[in-house]
Specification:
This protein is α/β, with parallel strands linked by helices. 31% of the residues lie in helices and 27% in strands. The strands form two sheets. Strands 1, 2, 3, 4, 5, 6, 7, 8 and 9 form a nine-stranded mixed sheet that branches. Strands 10, 11, 12, 13 and 14 form a five-stranded mixed sheet that branches. β1 and β2 form a beta hairpin. α10 crosses α11.
Length: 416
């Protein structure tokens, strides 16, 4: 009886001292930050931190509400991101809360200088979630990009960013990077960190392809900010990847090169629209949709100190348009088109691999299967994977099988 009474008293005491929420605040006492940008400041060793905060009264959902009214933007110059957070509280009456940040935008200047000094502390502070997106503002500042985050279809820019990132899997034109994944790649040494490439588009309709078309290719290649766009839509633009070597940005990938990274990672984009030169009339294009038939088979061996990487890629294609009206659904012609698709994709993949090898950065993550060849992690760390990747020999095989011909089973020329 005495033991039971003692247990009841202990439980009651525990409930008494743990009840309540001493750190709680009313909603109208909190300022919710939804986006954060980091840029180099004119002053030496200082940074500009831009905060985009939600205005609760503007989120009523009325027809006259828009994204400009729903947010407030403040830029602070400080020595560290932590100091900037404290200084934010000197001009905002509410207590800043960073746990709702959807995206961290890094200006290209500071990305090339190095992000290690502020990315690592972000992982330690409890308000920064690992599910936040990391993007790099290409040829612009994070502050300028945040000011252009004014979508008309969404009230909050954070919802726009979230939707854009989720739709990145539709076509593979830009990859998404979470803070947790970026940090793991930064520390692990088995793959290079990368971030989504974003930019402010001038919306003047100018066509500025980033790279030249290769043999058999009909698609132009772009990075963020160079896509020919006009209209009143948001000038914020997502396309390509920012590549990092250690914590410094060293280069970029175009939208098509980013798509090749996704394919080699085994990520299947359901709407990979692609145009290749017609095998029989090169001036015309054949439009297709392709997807992975299975995950790429990757085998890595080590010969005389050099890594040999064999990759076997199987693509399944659907023909969506044949302007020449040649019957590529027939045997004989079908094999010609399959070979043409395989050659173009093979060239795109090898171009991406050559570019990343020259930069010493491995966005695909071939280092993960490579480290399985070593008995201990210490043995793997002795291998400088960045250098080993630069000297690796890639043997790539791409096979395409046309499975469908859309809603038409036989092509025929137009009657003259």
């Amino acid at each position: 009886m005495g033991v039971r009474l003692m247990v009841v008293l202990l439980v009651s005491a525990a409930l008494l001292f743990t009840a309540g929420c001493s750190g709680a605040r009313e909603t109208d006492e909190v300022g919710y930050v939804i986006a954060m940008g980091i840029d180099k400041a004119p002053e030496k060793d200082k940074i500009n931190v831009t905060y985009q905060m939600a205005i609760p009264r503007a989120l009523s959902g009325t027809s006259d509400s828009d994204s400009k009214e729903a947010t407030e933007i403040i830029t602070i110059t400080a020595n560290t991101a932590v100091e900037a957070r404290n200084l934010l509280n000197t001009s905002v009456a509410r207590v800043p809360n960073l746990s709702h940040i959807k995206v961290i935008i890094i200006g290209e200047d500071i990305a090339r200088q190095g992000v290690g000094d502020f990315i690592a502390p972000l992982q330690r502070f409890r308000e920064f979630r690992g599910s936040m997106y990391v993007v790099v503002a290409h040829e612009s500042t994070a502050e300028d990009f945040i000011k252009k985050l004014t979508p008309r279809l969404e009230i909050l820019p954070s919802k726009y960013v979230e939707t854009m990132m989720l739709s990145s899997t539709e076509n593979g034109y830009y990859g998404r990077s979470f803070l947790h994944d970026f940090y793991n790649r930064l520390k692990g040494g088995s793959a290079a960190p990368y971030a989504t490439l974003v930019a402010v588009n001038p919306m003047d309709g100018k066509d500025l392809p980033t790279d030249k078309k290769r043999a058999g290719e009909k698609n132009d290649e772009y990075t963020a900010g160079n896509i020919p766009l006009m209209g009143e839509g948001p000038a914020a633009n997502f396309a390509g990847l920012a590549l990092f070597k250690a914590d410094k940005m060293v280069g970029t990938l175009t939208n098509e090169e980013c798509r090749m990274v996704s394919l080699l990672q085994g990520k299947n984009a359901p709407n990979c629209f692609f145009a290749v030169a017609d095998p029989n009339i090169p001036d015309k294009a054949v439009n297709i949709i392709f997807r992975l038939g299975r995950k790429p088979n990757t085998k890595i061996t080590l010969q005389d100190g050099q890594f040999i990487v064999d990759v076997d890629v199987l693509l399944e294609a659907e023909v969506t348009s044949i302007p020449s009206a040649i019957n590529y659904e027939m045997a004989g012609y079908k094999e010609q088109l399959e070979e043409q698709i395989s050659q173009v994709v093979h060239g795109e993949m090898m171009n991406m691999l050559d570019k990343t090898r020259s930069l010493g950065t491995d966005p695909v993550g071939f280092g993960y299967p490579a480290r399985a060849m070593f008995r201990t992690f210490d043995e793997w760390r002795e291998i400088n994977w960045s250098e080993a990747y630069s000297n690796a020999d890639f043997r790539l095989k791409v096979t395409t099988k046309i499975r469908r011909s859309a809603l038409m089973w036989q092509s025929s020329p137009i009657t003259k």
